[in-house]
């Protein structure tokens, strides 16, 4: 199914706006920010999934027997460590992921604010002749 549609005759007359060098730079900047948002959202989803996995591991470790060592992945190898040490490592990794998630979220918010400013400027000049909305 195609998203292409014909412009109304009255909208077509508005599309005769000349694009200056500065306007093109703003359009390019918006496009770059849009690509960054996609990358940030992808990273956010991966980090969130990893944090959920670590939370699940932490719950499993709480149920584990304290006397039996558990296997913990270090690099490409698994080593046997006490449950308490495994819990500490999982909590530390979870905290790092939490900070990384906060950083990504702040980057997303900052980028969206910049995009909003560019949208205002571009829509003010071009009106219906430009589409900056995501599908």
Automatic annotation (TrEMBL):
Keywords: Chaperone, Coiled coil. Residues 30-57, 87-121 form a coiled coil. InterPro entries: PFD_beta-like (IPR002777), PFDN4 (IPR016661), Prefoldin (IPR009053). Pfam families: Prefoldin_2. GO terms for molecular function: unfolded protein binding. GO terms for cellular component: cytoplasm; prefoldin complex. One of its GO terms (biological process) is protein folding. It comes from the Eukaryota. Binds specifically to cytosolic chaperonin (c-CPN) and transfers target proteins to it. Binds to nascent polypeptide chain and promotes folding in an environment in which there are many competing pathways for nonnative proteins. Belongs to the prefoldin subunit beta family. Heterohexamer of two PFD-alpha type and four PFD-beta type subunits. This is Prefoldin subunit 4.
């Amino acid at each position: 199914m195609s998203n292409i549609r014909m412009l109304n005759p009255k909208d077509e007359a508005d599309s005769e706006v000349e694009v200056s060098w500065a306007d093109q730079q703003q359009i390019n900047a918006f496009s770059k920010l849009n690509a960054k948002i996609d990358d940030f959202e992808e990273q956010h989803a991966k980090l969130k999934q990893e944090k959920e996995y670590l939370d699940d591991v932490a719950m499993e470790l709480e149920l584990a027997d304290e006397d039996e060592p558990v296997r913990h992945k270090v690099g490409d190898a698994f080593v046997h460590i006490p449950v308490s040490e495994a819990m500490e490592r999982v909590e530390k990794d979870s905290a790092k992921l939490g900070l990384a998630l906060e950083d990504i979220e702040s980057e997303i918010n900052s980028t969206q604010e910049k995009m909003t400013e560019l949208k205002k400027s571009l829509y003010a000049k071009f009106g219906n002749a430009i589409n900056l909305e995501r599908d």
